[in-house]
Design brief:
The two termini are 17 Å apart. It is built from two helices and six strands, in the order E-E-E-H-E-H-E-E. It is an alpha+beta fold. The longest helix has 14 residues. Helix content is 16%, strand content 35%. Strands 1-2-4-6-5-3 form a six-stranded mixed β-sheet. The chain has one domain.
């Protein structure tokens, strides 16, 4: 369960968008350089039908949860906004939470650029 330490590192797109990250109290980060680009962005709804949750959990550990009151719709903007968080925690994968206008989870309309919805946040994972 992720409780405790709340890091608010803010980068702006326009002037309102920002994402915060919450980690567990006893979490020990293994930072990468803050300008790292060696992590993957995927949407939760893009998981294949044969996705093996148990195998994923054996290979990765959850290190943080991203959230925003002002979510963006563009993957590139999201990447710029969360890169510092992800790199500082040593993240390898971010599973994005993409929502439609009603707030329901949705599959992004494109693999790059505008998702067709809002990226409400995501979960940061790193290799075990």
């Amino acid at each position: 369960m992720l409780v405790g330490l709340l890091l608010i590192l803010t980068t702006a797109v326009g002037c309102a968008a920002r994402y915060s990250v919450e980690t567990a109290d006893n979490f020990v980060p293994k930072p990468k350089p803050l300008d790292c680009v060696s992590f993957e962005l995927v949407a939760a709804s893009e998981r294949p039908a044969d996705f093996d949750e148990a195998a994923f959990s054996r290979a990765f550990e959850q290190v943080g949860v991203l959230s925003s009151d002002e979510p963006v719709s563009n993957r590139d903007d999201f990447l710029r906004l969360v890169r510092t968080h992800v790199c500082s925690l040593g993240g390898d994968v971010v599973v994005m939470d993409v929502r439609d206008a009603r707030g329901a989870p949705m599959r992004p309309v494109k693999s790059t650029g505008d998702t067709g919805g809002k990226i409400a946040g995501g979960i940061i994972y790193r290799h075990r």
